[in-house]
Amino acid sequence: MSIATALVRSHLARTELVHEAIESALDRAGLHYANAVLLFLSDHYAQEPNAALHEAARVAGCLQIDGCCAAGLFTESDQTMGEPAAAAMVFGGDIQLRHAMPGDAPVLSFAAPGGLDPTWLESGEARFGAIASDSDGQGPFRVWSSGRVQASGHCNLTFTGARLRIGLTQGARPLSEPRPITRVIGHDIMAVGGKLALGSLAQALPQLGRAIDGMPLHLFMAGILHGAPEHALAEGRYQLLPILSANPDNGVVTVPAQLAEGDQLFWAVRQAEAAEQELRALLDRLGSETLEPPAFGLFFPCLGRGPGFYGGEDRDLALVTERYPGLPLIGFYGNGETARLNGMNRLLQYSAVLGLGYC
Predict the structure, then answer these.
(1) What is the pLDDT of residue 207?
(2) Where are the beta strands (DSSP E) in 76-211?
(3) What are the backbone dihedrals phi and psi of residue 272, each rounded to the nearest 5 degrees, phi first?
(4) pTM (predicted TM-score)
(5) Which helix (H) or strand (E) is 136 found in, with range?
(6) Do residues 46 and 71 make contact, with C-beta atoms less than 8 angstroms apart?
(7) Residue 356 bridge partners (DSSP)
């Protein structure tokens, strides 16, 4: 096996953690040096990651050190949230990781929140990846490629010697049928299907057996269809937007995207059961595409989908490792996810993106 992972944690953010993680991963892979390393560090390293990156290149014997800082890290055998840690995946043999060029696809992408240039995100390459995160949303956020912190706040990577299959799960339960937005100004949805937006949402809630009063607003999502409305929900051709605010005085619901009259909208709720069912379906779908077992996995769930969402156990991570026991897997909990959806690269929330690599 020329691919392996390791995660090391401590009470202090020391460069020795990076040394130990990469050295352990090299030992597990049977390698003296790596062609490339995916290195994710806890946000404790974000203020000054250069010493850690230099140590990573020295121990790995290569300059292709790529990754970012995040609030929570994991591999197939361990996970951590909120403590100093380093997680590494080393690649050897015929697998290389390099800067992506025009025409390469899919492109593994990491970005800091401030590096989310729409032109970069929406460029023609099919992207997948996640946004750097921290425990309080204040930063600093760091992204690195080829062993250097990227001033642009983002990076673009592609594999050679491996093929990737990418899957996406958004994990929310629809509460209503899609209806056209009939009045909107920028981010403020005023009416859906001819009714006040908040009234339209409240009308959908009896499915939950609850009234809107007292329901946590962060659990609700506005779903926007992409492409033809027919079968869009069944085919997953939609993007879920979190609700930023809801005004009971005028019925306006505000979301973090500019929408247009005529856009088809449905209301949804974030539910652990729905998220788990959708991830199971994704794993079934990816598994049905080939009998060949994957050689490694890259997994990027939203920070809002971690153990807290599932009542203490990260069911996302458990399902992937149960389906592929022993598969080298690495990832982190992000501030958002990037994936190709209905022909466009999009920034998603509360989703999980899975990439399976085949040699």
Answers:
(1) 55
(2) 79-81, 85-91, 96-99, 107-111, 127-131, 143-145, 148-149, 154-160, 163-169, 172-174, 179-185, 188-192, 195-196
(3) -60, -40
(4) 0.91
(5) none
(6) no
(7) 165, 297
